[in-house]
Design a protein that fits this description.
alpha/beta, about 260 residues, globular, 10 helices, four-stranded antiparallel beta sheet, six-stranded mixed beta sheet
Length: about 260
């Protein structure tokens, strides 16, 4: 089953044509990785899937992006879409409030008023699902800014889970982390895909090959317009690559 179907999508920042003719079906409850050189539109495309790009003046989208069979620009309110399609950013961005309030913020915003015991249960479940509960259960009411970088990123994942989305978008979620914290996040991704659809942008080819089920490889043309070179099962993309990707990697243009 497809979570997203993207059909002939083009994207502009003002007069800059950033993405052209993107066609892709993203599978449900799998990890899909977007790879390619800097500036090829990976993050732009990712942010299109929950319409965060709408907040930027001058953006324009043509073509069709379907989420669960419905057009995200005609059939969804942006806030409703973002409650179903959550986002984890490159750098951990906990709110300057307690660990508990970081997790409770989304449910308080999106849902009807929850009883305290319901909110307590949701906070605990979200932290457990993000593999963070045991590390923070004794300091829930202390500032989230006191956590390590890796813990902060898992907190941001827990904060996303608390809104109970169906899809989690991750924009280079481990690029600012040390190798041990990166391994925690990667292990967490394997667990999360049992329940959620995960879409991750990464510059790390090895990470994409380790954790993703499907891989999309983007490139950039001479006019700095991003386009999709190939998309398919990760094993196929990595072990039988198209010549264009092989040449890009050898020339150092990848990453």
């Amino acid at each position: 089953m497809n979570t997203f179907s993207v059909i002939d999508m083009d994207f502009w920042y003002g007069t800059h044509h950033a993405l052209t003719s993107i066609r892709m079906d993203i599978r449900d409850k799998a990890i899909t990785a977007f790879i390619g050189p800097s500036g090829c539109g990976k993050s732009t495309f990712l942010r299109t899937l929950n319409r965060i790009n709408d907040t930027i003046d001058g953006v324009r989208v043509e073509g069709t992006v379907l989420y669960k069979g419905l057009d995200i620009y005609r059939d969804y309110d942006p806030l409703d879409l973002r409650s179903q399609v959550g986002m984890v950013f490159q750098k951990p961005n906990p709110f300057p409030m307690s660990i508990y309030d970081n997790i409770a913020y989304g449910p308080r915003l999106h849902h009807a008023v929850l009883k305290k015991h319901e909110l307590d249960e949701l906070v605990e479940k979200s932290l457990r699902d993000a593999a963070l509960w045991d590390e923070v259960k004794d300091r829930l009411h202390k500032s989230a800014l006191g956590l390590s970088g890796g813990q902060q990123q898992r907190l941001c994942i827990a904060r996303t889970l608390a809104v109970q989305p169906e899809v989690i978008l991750m924009d280079e979620p481990t690029s600012a982390l040390d190798p041990i914290s990166t391994s925690y996040i990667e292990e967490l991704c394997f667990k999360l895909k049992e329940t959620y659809t995960l879409i991750i942008v990464t510059h790390n080819m090895q990470q994409a090959s380790r954790i993703s089920d499907y891989t999309a490889f983007f490139m950039i043309d001479d006019d700095r317009c991003g386009y999709l070179v190939e998309y398919g099962e990760t094993a196929q993309v990595f072990y039988n690559p198209k010549e264009e990707r092989t040449e890009a990697y050898i020339s150092g243009r990848f990453g």
